[in-house]
Amino acid sequence: MPKVVDREKRRAEVAEAAWRVVERVGIRAATLRDIAEEMGITKGSLAHYFQSKQQLVAFAFEYGVTRVFERMEAMTRVASPGVDRLRIALELMTPAHFDLDAASAAALTFWAYATDDKLLADVHLRNYATWRTRVSGFLEEAKARGQLRAATDVALETTALMALVDGTLVGSVLEPDQFTKARILEILDHALSRL
Amino acid sequence: MSSGNERAIAVPKIVDHGERRRIIAEATWRVIERDGFDRATFRAIAKELGYTPSVVAHYFRDKERLMEFAFKLGCEDAFSRIERDAQHLPPGMPRLKIALEHMMPDSLGRDISAKATLNYWGAAASTPAMVAVHRQSYLAWRALLRRFLSEAAAAGQVTAALDIDLESSSLIALIDGIMVGSALESSLYPRSVQRTLIHRALARLSTDYEAGKPRTAAASRKVKTTARADKHA
Predict the structure, then answer these.
(1) Directed axis angle between helix B63-87 and helix B17-35, to 10°?
(2) Does residue B18 sit in the same domain as residue B80?
(3) Which of A156, A160, B33, B81 has the most CB atoms in a 10 Å sphere around its CB?
(4) Using the beta-carbon criterion (under 8 Å), do B121 and A84 form an inter-chain contact?
(5) Cβ–Cβ under 8 Å, residues B29 and B111
(6) CB A112 to CB B178 under 8 A?
(7) How far, rounded to the nearest angstrom, does the alpha carbon of residue B16 sit from its chain's CA centroid?
C-alpha cells in the first residue's frame, strides 16, 4: 500500500514540474528531458512514471483540473448556495484565476492535441463531465431558491455557460487586449445577470 | 484520386495563382479534418490534390504560412457570405442572427471545421504570426457584430443601455466556446443545440427580456460583489 501512495505522490511531483516547464517554454516545446532536468532526475527515471509526452500531458491536465475543482469545492462550500457559488465556480475556470500565465495557451494547445488523440480526448471528456456536474448543480440550487426564471432549462444553461468560459480562454490567448482578466469577469457577470 | 495524375501533368503555364492558393488552402482543411494536424504535411496536401509537393512549396514557404493564408481566407469567405445575406435582411437583429449562424461550427457554408479551427488556435498559441492573423480576422468579425448591434440599438430592438463592446466580446466568446465544445464534446453540441444557444443569447438582448425578470434574481445580483473567487482565495 505505501508503495502505491509513493507512486501517486511522485506522479504529482512530476505534474508540478511539468507545469513549471510549460510556464517557462510552453507546452509544445516542453520535452520529457526538460521535465526530468527540472526534477533533477534522469530521463530513464522519469520513464518509470511516464513513457511518453502524451501520457505526461494527459496526467498533467487531469492533475491541474483536479486542483481547480478542489479549490472550487473549498470556496463554494462557504459561499451562499446558488448563483454566488456558480459565479465562483465559473471564475475559477476562466483565465482570470489561473495560477500560471502559460495555462491558457497550454489549454488551447491541449484542446488541439485532443482533437486527434484518444487518450487526451478522454481526459478532456472526464474533466468536462465533472465540470458540467458542478455547473448544473449550482444552477439547480439557484433555480430551487428562485434566483432564476422558473422556465430555465438547466442543461442548456450549463452548456451555454461552459461554452462562454471556454470562449474567454480562446480570447485571452489570441486577443489578450480584448479579453483582459477584468473584461473576462465582466463577461461572466453580464451572463449571470441575465440568467 | 483518378484525376490526380492528369492534374499533376497539367500544371499549366497559365495559372490563376490566387485560385491555386485557394485550392491548396481548402485541401489543407480537408487533410487536417481527416488525418489530423501533424499529418497534414505538404506531401499529404499535395497528394490530396494530385500535385507534387513542390507545387505546394511554390505557393507557401512553410506550413505556418499556409495555415495563416487558409485561416484568413476561411474567415474572409464567411464574412462575405454574412455581408451578402445581410443586404437582403432588415438592419439589426436579423442581420446579427445570420452573422452568428454563419460562424457556427456546423454552418453549411463554413469552410473550416471545428477540429481544424482548434488546431489553428493550438498552433497559434506558440506562434505569434498566427496570432496576428487571427487578431486581424477577428477585428473584422468584431466590426461586423458591432455594426449589427448598433443598428439594433438604433432601431430600438435591444435595450437602450446596451454595451456594444461587452456584447460583441460575449458573442465572440460564445461562438468560440461552441467551437471548442463541438470539436471535443460533439455529442453535446448537435447543430440544433448550437442554434438554440445562439438564439437564446439573441433573445436576451431584446428589449422584452429584462421586463420578464424575477425580482429574486435582481436581489441576488446585489450580492454578487461579495461572491468573487478572489475574495475567498
Answers:
(1) 100
(2) no
(3) A160
(4) no
(5) yes
(6) no
(7) 27
From residue B54, alpha-carbon distances to B18, B44, B50, B51, B218 in Å are 17, 12, 12, 8, 64
Phi/psi zone of residue B50: left (φ > 0), alpha (ψ -120 to 50 degrees), beta?
left
CATH number (domain holding residue B33): 1.10.10
The residues that bridge with B206 in the sheet, in sequence order, are B158
CB neighbour burial string for B111-133, b if at least 16 within 10 angstroms, e if fewer? bbbbbbbbbbbbbbbbbeebbeb
CB < 8 Å to A103, chain B: none
pLDDT on residue A97: 83
| B229/A contact by beta carbon, under 8 A | yes
> Is B173 near chain A, with CB under 8 Å?
yes
d(CA B48, CA B55): 12
Task: Please tell me which residue of chain B has the smallest CA distance to A153.
Answer: B200
Most B CBs within 10 Å: which of A116, A141, A190, as the mutation test of the B interface? Answer: A116
pLDDT at A8 over 80: yes
List the domain range (segments joined by +) for residue B116: 64-210
Among A37, A46, A181, A17, CA closest to A101:
A181
- CATH of residue A94: 1.10.357.10
If asked whether residues B136 and B204 sit together in one domain, one would say: yes
Dihedral angle, C-alpha B57, A29, A58, A181, nearest 10 °: -100
The 3-class secondary structure across B46-108, one letter per residue, is HHHHCCCHHHHHHHCCCHHHHHHHHHHHHHHHHHHHHHHHHHCCCCCHHHHHHHHHHHCCCCC
Question: Which residues of chain B does A108 touch, with a Cβ-Cβ cutoff of 8 Å?
Answer: 121-122, 124-125
Q: Are residues B52 and B92 in the same domain?
A: no
Residues of chain B with pLDDT under 70: 1-14, 108-110, 207-227, 230-233
* B225: helix, strand or coil: helix
Q: Length of chain A, please?
A: 195
Q: Reduced to 3 states, what is the DSSP secondary structure of residue A158?
A: helix
User: What distance in Å separates the CA atoms of residue B71 and residue B136, rounded to the nearest whole number?
Assistant: 11
pLDDT score of B218: 44
| B162–A contact, CB cutoff 8 A | no
Within 8 A of A147 by CB-CB distance, chain B residues are: 214, 216-217, 220
Q: Is residue A104 part of a domain?
A: yes
Query: Which residues constitute the domain of residue A84?
Result: 53-193
Complex prediction ipTM: 0.93
Query: In terms of domains, do B74 and B176 share one?
Result: yes
Does B36 contact A187 at a Cβ distance shorter than 8 Å? no
Cβ <8 Å between A149 and B214: yes
- Evaluate whether residue B216 is within a structural domain: no
